[in-house]
Design brief:
Blueprint lengths: L35 H7 L2 H14 L2 H12 L4 H26 L9 H13 L2 H21 L1 H8 L2 H25 L1 H4 L3
Helix pairs in contact: 3-4, 3-5
């Protein structure tokens, strides 16, 4: 049998730009997902202890913020329990699935600053309206990420500009430490 003849690769004409291949919607894992045996073989004391520390942290400080915001917003115990279950379960499930899929530690959690911003919203909106707004904003963020718009914007905006915007958001928290120290040194100094 004669070898098949392949066409030579196309050479772009001068002045034309070759189109980039389409990027996948989600980044594909570079390796096969870990099986149960692999997970059990890789499980060790440092990993379990790190996981427990993360669990204790997430079940203490941030949950206290969530409970305080919910209580201030007039939520019932059932609504608070549902909210706490939802944020812990969804974050835990996403962390477990994505970490097993990509074979690296990937943590997913809810937004603590977003929770704090809920306080004023619960003063004039119902819990159902707030939950609906959360779902709609989540769908919007997912659509922006999946469409590639965010990737294109990030390619254009220089990283120092992005980092300076992030620093500007957190600047007030840093400068408020000085004000808090002057107003209530007994509480602020140990921090």
């Amino acid at each position: 049998m004669l070898p098949s003849r392949q066409d030579p690769p196309a050479i772009p004409r001068a002045g034309t730009v070759a189109a980039d291949p389409p990027r996948p919607l989600l980044e594909r894992p570079g390796v096969r997902p870990a099986g149960v045996r692999q997970v059990l073989r890789d499980l060790g004391l440092p990993y379990v202890s790190n996981g427990l520390i993360g669990l204790i942290f997430s079940a203490s400080g941030p949950i206290a913020v969530t409970l305080a915001v919910g209580a201030a917003g007039g939520l019932t115990e059932a609504q608070l329990a549902s909210w706490v279950f939802g944020i812990l379960f969804s974050g835990g499930a996403a962390t477990l699935v994505m970490s097993l899929l990509y074979k690296q530690p990937l943590g997913f959690a809810w937004s603590i600053p977003g929770t704090v911003l809920l306080g004023p919203s619960l003063q004039h909106l119902s819990f159902a309206e707030v939950v609906g707004a959360f779902f709609m904003s989540g769908i919007l963020v997912l659509a922006l990420g999946a469409s590639g718009v965010v990737r294109r914007i990030m390619e254009v905006v220089p990283m120092p500009i992005v980092m300076s915007m992030v620093a500007a958001v957190f600047l007030k928290f840093g400068t408020d430490i000085v004000v808090s120290t002057q107003a209530n040194p007994v509480v602020a100094v140990p921090m």
